[in-house]
TrEMBL record:
Protein name: C2 domain-containing protein
SMART domains: C2
Domain C2: 1-72, 83-199
Superkingdom of origin: Eukaryota
Database matches in PANTHER family: RAS GTPASE-ACTIVATING PROTEIN 4-RELATED, RAS GTPASE-ACTIVATING PROTEINS
Amino acid sequence: MGGHSIRWTATVWKTLCPFWGEEYQVHLPPTFHTVAFYVMDEDALSQDDVIGKVCFTRDTLASHPKGFSGWAHLTEVDPNEEVQGEIHLRLEVVPGPRAPRLRCSVLEARGLAPKDRNGASDPFVRVRYNGRTQETSIVKKSCYPRWNETFEFELEEGAAETLCVEAWDWDLVSRNDFLGKVVVSVQRLWAARLEEGWFRLQPDQAKRRRHEGNLGSLQLEVRLRDETVLPSSCYQPLVQLLCQEVTLGAQGPGQLIPIIEETTTTECRQDVATNLLKLFLGQGLAKDFLDLLFQLELGRTSEA
C-alpha cells in the first residue's frame, strides 16, 4: 500500500480454502492511490509464488463510506502492471537551428516500486520519441532517485504525436524490470510550450491480461477512514471538558461520558475507549477515568 505500508498474514498450510480472520489498521500517506492484497504461496526452499491480487483504488474505497465487505475475484499479477510512484518532468518546446526542438528534463522520481531483494531499485529512465531513444544514468539502490538530466528531440513535420518516458529497474544478470511510464501529447506541448510537474507512472496497458475468476476469490472487509489532525490548541476546550468530567466524577456521574457512550456504535466503542484512555494517561488522570467507568458500570449492575 503506497509502496511502503506492508502487512503479512499467517501462512495457512496445505489448503485451497484458507481462513485467516485477521484484522489490520494501516496508516496510509495522503498521496496513496491504491490498496492491494496479494495472495502468496509460501515455498520453504524457493521464492514464494504470487497466486493473484485484489486492488482497490482510493476512489473505490471513498465510494463505500461504510466500507467494502464481500468476495473479490483475484486477478493475475502482471509485472508490467506492478507500478507505483511519480516522476518529475519539465517539458518544453524550444527553438532549434533547423526546426523547433522538444526538450525533456528528467528531474527526479518518488515512491518507485522496490524490485530488488534489498527493498529498493536501481532506476533509470528511457525517453522515446519519433524512433529515437535516450537514457539517463542509473541510480543505485533508491526508490527516490534524482537525475536532473535533459534530452532534446527535433520536432519535424509529420513526427510522432506522443513522447514516452519509461522508468526501469536495472539488473546486471537478469532482465530489467519495468517501473512504469508516462505518455505525453506533443500537440498539447505545442500549445502550452512549457509543462512541468509530477506525473503518475502508469502500467503498460498493451500487455494487460486478465484471468478474473479463475484464480479464486478473497473475502475482505475494507474501510477507509480519513483523519485530519488539527493544531493541539484546537482540541484544548474539549480536553478541558473531558478532564473536568473525570475530576468531578467522584461527586456523581456527569453527562459527557454517557453521551459519548450512547452516540457511538458498538464497532467503534473500543476505539473511543482506547483513545480516551490515552488522553487521560497524558493528563495524569488515567486512574480517575477508570474509576469513573467502574462507577458507571456498577450503577447499571445495581439497577439491574
